[in-house]
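To the team - zinc ion complex, inputs and output below.
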Amino acid sequence: MRFEHEGLLVDDYNLSLDRHCKDCGKAYTIGDYMGGFSEHHFYRPVDYKSGCERSCLECWLGVSEFVKPRPQNLQPVFHNLNLTFPLEHGHWYDDSHYEQIITGQWAVTYEKYLKDGCHLVVLPLARLQTDRVVLIPNGVAIYPVGRFGFSTIAGDQSALMAAALQSAASGVSIADLKSHPVMVFPVRFSWEALIHANHKDHMIMIDALSGLTEPLCFDLFRYWHCRLGQTPDEGLPALPGQLQSNLMMAGALLINGLTHQSVVLGGAAFSHKITRGLGLVLRQPEWEQMPYGGEVGGIVIHALSLYSQMIQTQSSTAKFIQALSLLEFLAFPKAYQKFTKVKTVISRYITTCPSERKKILDRFEELTGKKDPVTGDEMGLRTRIVHIGGRLEFLVPSGRDREALFLELDGYVRCVIDHMIDHSSLSWDSYEEVKAQM
Ligand SMILES: [Zn+2]
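Output:
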């Protein structure tokens, strides 16, 4: 069932979505009011279609005191899921099972994780192409379309879920996941709590699972394959979980480590989608190029997350400020320091030549807080944006100049991040000694 009226399209998913009235708090679905006499209220003069996403019909009509509220269960159970990522990956991956791993035989590939109480997550990947299996440290495998062993999953338990109706109405099914490359990794959570969780909890779950993929590899993929520019890079992949056919919808397949049964979660979990370009072509990365788990490695992982957020930002002004903040973090990840100190540290990464360094320090002055030597007027870009309310688009009006500016900032950031990745196994104190030699 769906209705369309004056440009408003309400599909099955939105009709069956559990909502809470903003006025009386009652649980309702738009579908409750479809059919029968109340259906007329969607149209003028009552015009309930303008308010059906937020209020129950009774409140919209102003008669809610005559209605007995439905018993409601507002208590979210998401915190009972105890979602955690396993810490032990010494057994990943088993070379003797290579054949089974690259042919998508997940029960063998993840045998030790599953015995250890983990469940498996399978997320569809949109705007991403790969023609072979990509293996990442920490138990992550990415399969091209048609390679993952969907046929060996024992059975679908989705119908047992409290939120089965909404998940079904989202239209997301195993068939959708089969038509995508998929990312597979182990997690721990309470299967029992998942089955009893409501639709909102499931959306939080998809968002949390997608978020887990960022530090595991997606921040690095974006760093390796995309660049900072005035418009977001055409190679940006969609958020893991988003579906190519309908980027508004997201899905996740969860496989029970003990029973090998599965559930599909589906719904509108994300608020935005990338539309520019075709996305990423992924190749197997060298594991040596990935940050190790030293103290410096932990700082790099946070820096990569900031980088990843920055290049997905649309506004040039916001991106410029984020780039300078990222340089501040890279220079002093543990405490605030003035930018005069920040630029001294950053310039050492960029060049060893003293006259080149002087040029870079002057350039950073222009980018941040330079004053006109005669009039004393503020000329620095950051000061004019943050303190005088300017926008980068007006301060640097030429698109070509802005592109060059972002390329320049990207170069500075990469000098530091690449160096840190090379030294990611070190403690911060040891790394300070390395920096002192620069
Ligand atoms: Zn109400």
